[in-house]
Write the structure tokens for this entry.
Amino acid sequence: MNLDRLVAGLDIGSAKTTAVIAEVVGDLPKHPTVNILGVGQARTTGLRRGVVADIDETQRSITKAMQDAERMAGAQVESVYAGIAGEHVQAMTSTGIASVTGSEITRADVERANAVARAQAIPQDRELIHAIPQEYTVDKNIGIRDPIGMIGTRLETEMYLVTIGSSPAMNLRKAVERASYKVSELVLEPLASALSVLTDDEKELGVALVEMGAGTTDVAVFHEGKIRYLGTIGYGGLNVTGDIVHGLGVTQADAERLKEQYGAAYEPMVPHGEKIRLPSTGAQGDREIPRELLAHIIHQRTQEIFEIVLRHVEEAGLIKKLSAGVVVTGGAAAQPGTADLASDVFGTGARLGVPGEFLGGLADSVQSPRFSTVTGLVQYGAHRVAIGSGAGKGKRLSVGAATPSMDHLAARFKTWLQDFW
Ligand SMILES: Nc1ncnc2c1ncn2[C@@H]1O[C@H](COP(=O)(O)OP(=O)(O)OP(=O)(O)O)[C@@H](O)[C@H]1O
Ligand SMILES: [Mg+2]
């Protein structure tokens, strides 16, 4: 195990906190291979719709998830790539112009143009977390991916800027720090998930990633290899469970169990006439319902969530650009029939997104849609290690030697994520 090449991802969700520790083994900056060494999970109730509402409870879940992952990996880490999401996320495009100094465009010219685009005034109550170059214009030629080496006098960059609310960011950092870890970087959760479940071809052709978690459903749309839209809807698997509680008169825990054992998000999937027994109190007596009724409840709510997503994607003018269809992921997408329903609602092809590509080691243990975000966070961190800006975080368990920390450097270096998403 190379301790300088360990990365940790930490996904603090509304239902569970997940930690993954991995070793970066490849050097390809875009797709470094990672070997999964440890995975840890803890249930949590510390978040409300993606935002920390209870720091102590969130810290407890972080400590548990991280310690489990560390024990499994046989190594400790000092810092983590932590996911953030929620309705406080905003995205905008910004342009920057630089005059070309020499006869051909150099990296320095590109960085100047990018710096101008990034220098947008960010309101005091917001933080910039990602600045993603989208494309360049050299003189009058638009749509250039990599202008370095081209001839021209005027270079213009179009950049996608993602900002988050300062207070949700501060509370998340505080919870991680109280658990005695440093935050290398905060990473937008749907972008992390996109790294672990979308292919380059899908992003090129046009694809909507729909991540259904417990409290929220996050959306990221890509087209021509670029990020075009980000959004969050304040409904997820918890709302599905809530509908089952109300519709069938069962407890929250029983509703979760029914959903996982007998549920389907696409009603036509359930065989006609099949019955299920409901957990009941004495007064309720023995109760049996058609399994179709349970599927109906799940179908209705999931469809409603997808229709809101559809409206947002339509409003962004992107619905005709989804040649590669829709990829559904997140814990709630484990519900059978979720992709079939998405295909119906969006009128495109749809598939389930599960982490897998570029993963080695104990990859099996993260091959489920609820691990998309945390796996993507590790892949993001691996990218940082591969480009040399996120190294040196590991310590073998039981060996006391400390490794010098580079975190403060990594935190300050907000390099462009060129060609990454
Ligand atoms: N097999 C399954 N069938 C149906 N639903 C499931 C299944 N497994 C998990 N879920 C649902 O997925 C949700 C949890 O998803 P996930 O773990 O992605 O959420 P989270 O990341 O904690 O939350 P969020 O991203 O919204 O903050 C829960 O509502 C749970 O009921
Ligand atoms: Mg989540």
Summary: The longest strand covers residues 126-138. The chain has eleven helices and 21 strands.
